[in-house]
Please model this.
Amino acid sequence: MSHNHHSSHGHEAAHGGHDHDHDHEGHKKIYWAVGTALLVGTVITVLAREWEFSSVALTIAVALFVASIKAFLVCGYFMHLLSEKKVVYLTLATTVAFAIAMVGLILWSDKDPVTGTSPKTFYVP
Amino acid sequence: MDIPYTVKPRPDTGLYNAKVGIWLFLASEVMLFGAFFSAYILLRVTAQHGFWPDVADGWPHGLLNIPIGTFNTAVLISSSVTVVMAWMALKENNFPKFRNFMLFTVACALGFLGIKTFEYKEKFSHYVIRTTDGKVVTGHLDVDGKSPLFWNLDTVKAKNIEKLKVEVDIPNKYRFPVGMHVPEDIHKAHAEGRHHDEKEIEVSQIESLKAFIPSTHPFFAIYFTMTFLHGLHVLGGAIVLGYFAFVGTDLWRTNPEQFTNRIEVGGLFWHFVDLVWIFLFPVVYLL
Model:
């Protein structure tokens, strides 16, 4: 169990001091604003389903674009990624690189290596 | 001996231990869910227009309840806001406010799981029925006023039912266009603008009866796999956050900074769970 010789230090830090109150209030406003934006984004995503897009690819692109904006808000503000340390960015950059490779390889492997066609499956209940 | 850097950041990374740990863990979770999303894409693009569902891309559309899914999304987003506000409350040294926000967060998590359970039950009692004339309907069964779960044709025959009452779904632009395998009377009900139709089907005319479960169609397999895995993460997060809020609070008195860091780290996991749902909801419910 860790000693509490940090506690007096900790209380000061946890108190934050009066000069940090302004920061707290500013951050809280941002969090509420981001939460509202996420809810609005959700409504937009659902309503977008009613819109008839010219192609399936465009439909998917629009849905994923809205989802990406929401993801950016969650990562950037709620997870504090906009003000994080370099080591976190490096970890995530490595993850994204491997994730792209994994998804890419899985989708690329869809094609039959001999015929060059993608197998289709037909479901009968 | 104290473990160093539980509060004070490491000079090389600029982070305290738990933050390094949680980001590494979240990186592994990205690979986990990324693999499932890839599987979804693969199953979706290789599905062929065929017997069921009778739609151009061979993939069931409109089987999931979008209003419920949207509400669940709002629940999770709200819980993400309150978990970060709980952390802010600790930064302001306001423990009662922290507890209130955490209570709301855990309540949202349990609410999400409750709604998911309701959705799952609705799927288990929803059936696709293929008759001997090559027609296909979907709907809920009515057996003595009850809607049974996990039945198949053998179950129906074992209960010596001769005529099965079905509340048949009427196809629409969301739940399959009216296709070639839909019976004529359902075509008529669709034209009249009805949403459901009561039908009695002779059991002897039924070729197959399957619930909306993984073995019936890969859509259900991937839907249940991904949402159940996500649900397990919601449950785990709820347990951890609940523990920190109501059981393991002694650290707040002895080392408030370390306690605040634990809440921050728990919150990071919670935001990741929300992030997965932000992608999962449009992918399985809307697209």
The helical segments of chain A are 7-15, 21-48, 56-78, 86-108. Residues 4-82 of chain A form one domain.
